[in-house]
Every structure is written in C-alpha cells, then in structure tokens.
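User: Hey, quick favor. My workstation is busy. Could you predict this chain's structure for me?
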Amino acid sequence: MVRSLAKYPVRHVLVVGAGIGGLSAALALQRHGVRASLYERARAATEFGAGVVMTPNAIQGLNFLGVGDQVTESSSRSRGHEYRHYRTGEVLQRRPPAEVYTARYGAGVYYVHRADLHRALLAAVLANDPDCVHCGHVFTDLSQDQDGVVVRFANGACAKADALIGADGCRSVVREALHGREPVGYTGQVAFRALVPSTRLPNGYDYRRSMHLGPGRLFLSYPLRKNAFMNVVAIARQPAWQEESWTVHASVPELLERYADFNGEVRDLIKTIETTTLFKWGLHDRPPLATWSAGRATLLGDAAHPMSPFLGQGAALAIEDGVVLARCVAGACDLPQALASYERARRARADAAQRQSLARGDALQRAFVDSFDAHRDAEDTRLLDTFFDYNPATVALDEIRA
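Assistant: No problem, here it is.
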C-alpha cells in the first residue's frame, strides 16, 4: 500500500524504460503519492545480465523503496574483497566484509543477481498499480508545453502526463530527442561476462569475491544467490571494436588465450564456463552532458550518465537518481523547477562518477600489478567512501555531492 508523502495534488509522470533505474523512479514516485506510468520497448519487462554489486548507498535506496530485505535475502553477503596479483595470486589489498560497512554506513555490501533485483522492483511497482507498465512501446518523439508533455511511440500510441523521465539506458533515444546526437567513443576495453553454476565448481571452492589485476586486464569473480553461481567479469584492452551490443557471444578458448599468463585459479575458473553463457561487449564512453533536463523532461541512470563498470556504481546511482527525483517532485509546486532541483542535486555526483570510474579502470590495470602501494590504497578507499557514504532518502536536496 502506497503511503502518500506529497504536498501537492496527485501528478502523473511518464517513465520511458523499465529497467532498474526506471522501476526505482516509478516506485519512489508511487511512495510519494505520484502516479507513474512506465513504457518499455521490449515485449516483456524482464532483466538480462548477471551480477551487480549493491553497495551501502544502493541498499539505503532499496530500503527506502521497501524492497531492501527482499533483495538482500536472495543475495550473497560480502565476506570481503581481495585484489590479487595476476601471475602469482598474491593478495595485494583486502577490503572488509559487509559487517564493517554496515557499522560505518548503516548498510552492507551484497552481490545481487540483476534479475532478482529487477523482479523485486517490478513486483513492488505492480502491487501499487497493476496497470502502470506498458511493454512493446518504442519511443519516437515528444512535445511539451506549459500544461504537460506528450510522448509518441512507434506503434501509434501516445501518452500525456505532467512530466517525462528518460530511463532508457546508455543508448537512450529520449536523451537524443532532448539534446541531439552526441559523440560516442570506444574506450579501448572489451568486457566478458558469464555465470558459472556452483555444480561446475570443485568441492571446497572459495566463494570470496576477488579481482586479479594484470597489465591491461582484470578478472573479477563473486558469488550470487547464496553461492549458487559465480559471476565472472573479465575486462581487457583491445585496440578496436565496432558493435555496441551486450549480447555478442564469445568462446572459452578466446578468453583463455587473453588470460593465458594469469594464475591457475583464474584459468581453471575460465575452463568451467559454458560457451553458450559467455558474452562480450565493447565499453563505450559518452562525455557528461551539459544538462539533463529540458522543461518537463529529464533523464535518469545510464540515460543521464552512462557509466563504465570500474566503480561498480552504475545501478547504485540509478537507484539514487530515482529516490532523489521523487523527493524533488513531491516537494515542489512547479514540475520544471522540481526537475531542475533534481539535476542540481545529482549531476555533479554523477559526472564525478563517470570520470572517476574511467580513471580507476586505468589505475586497476596498471597500479597494483607488481607491488602494493599503501598511499594508492588509501586514495582508492577514500574514493569508494565518497560513494558509499550517501543515503538518497535523507541527503539534503540542496547538497551537491561529488
């Protein structure tokens, strides 16, 4: 049951994109007594992919949305994180377990299957309004005036509301409609991902999260669904890449060749991957936008600030966006001003995350390879603390965090 916190009459907000960010925004708006309608291009509102790390800032947002316990109960609680030397396996750096973060920030670190997170958010949204999700709607264009915004779709449908939120991912068509086309640069990095069932792993396998760092490469693995799976993410430098897609199949021999000089633990884990579950994609970079909003329309999540994966904050920032956006909408009498307030509260933090994520990726693939630098470790810890120490449900709306 939605508990209305809004100060003003019920409004109607359209959200294009029913991924993690769009669902978080819709659920947060519902919590504040605002009607939300989601429009998704896919024929069904489902989530693909594998694992995602939910850090304290994300868990705080999920708690506010009322799904925190449900998500964490199906997930793997962090037992700590180890950075290891690619060749020797030597531990270069250790991060603390979830309990330490809970004591410090009020929430821990969890390894979550994206489908479980998506399912929890979707169920909560539909429980509030069973008719609010519309699938098979491909956004084409929008128009707006002082009374509202009209959105049109490729199937001939149109929808009118008080405001529009573009939450349609890094290749956002809403962003293009608002701000035009933009340059997209290949970062020189290719990522591989796979899910390995625990039944394919040897007895006594250590399910601790670890990242092996090597020259121009990293190899990350962590458990999902109470150790039912190991999520594998490998990122390697590659001079050229053409297709911007999440679903290009890769082969196990190809991945083994790229990581042939990594230690036996890494190579053995690669050998357990079933080729049909191994995918690769090129990492592309879009520079931060000068502005997200235009009148009664704005952007959220990867549509506003496409993130490289090196900070592990893409999904977390999308959840934060949704919670803060709803607070701004509920607390203002003028919707364009509310969207401008949301952007002021979020853009500096998101811009910093985009820049720092790319820089951290470069550092991870170079800095820890041959020796452990205590000064660099302290800098990395401070960087992560900046993101973890943030609660989107309570942060001052006039406070810009970067």
